[in-house]
Write a structure and sequence with these properties.
The structure is a single chain. It is built from 4 helices and 3 strands. A hairpin with a 2-residue loop joins β1 and β2. α1 packs antiparallel against α2. The protein has a 3-stranded mixed sheet with strand order 1-2-3, covered by helices on one side.
Length: 166
């Protein structure tokens, strides 16, 4: 919006300056100097009018070179960066839980339907790490030794682990 104001102001100022120059320029019967002066002022005015197309052409050249900057600045950019980071963090935590479940199922020979994992997370200085893991056993999984599962998870992750039977 600021660029449009500046552009319109420069057009207005140039037109005003050209008018003043035209009024103050000497006129003669042959109009020799007046023709040249009108040519120069017209060229200057045309340059001012087409100046946005020059920046547009430069921008198109940058895009053709692969510079795809969207120009989003300030709070909007910060908001979307934060949203993206939150989505990535959530996906990473879900992936971690899935891989922990898969590891426990393989290590203790438990069917995936008989085991659920819930991880409580702790955030310290934008560094997420597991605070507590809850392993929930059901079906045939209830016959596995929960103390060994808890010990395995604690040694693997270095956090508290509790188990429950459903």
């Amino acid at each position: 919006m600021e660029d449009i104001k500046t552009y319109l102001l420069s057009i207005f100022a140039t037109a005003l300056l050209i008018t003043v120059v035209d009024i103050l320029a000497p006129t003669s019967t042959g109009s020799g100097l007046s023709k040249h002066l009108k040519l120069v002022t017209s060229l200057i005015f045309i340059c001012i009018l087409i100046s946005p197309t020059v920046s547009l052409a430069q921008r198109l050249g940058e895009i053709a070179d692969g510079n795809w900057e969207l120009g989003i600045e300030g709070e909007i950019e910060d908001h979307y960066a934060e949203e993206l980071q939150n989505a990535l963090d959530d996906a990473s935590r879900q992936y971690f839980e899935g891989m922990l479940k898969q590891t426990l199922c393989q290590e203790f020979e438990i069917a995936e339907d008989d085991l659920r994992v819930h991880v409580e997370w702790q955030n310290e200085n934008n560094d997420w790490h597991p605070k507590k893991v809850t392993v929930i056993l059901s079906g045939k999984g209830i016959w596995k030794n929960p103390a060994k599962i808890e010990e395995y998870v604690t040694s693997l992750l270095g956090c508290d682990c509790v188990s429950a039977i459903e």
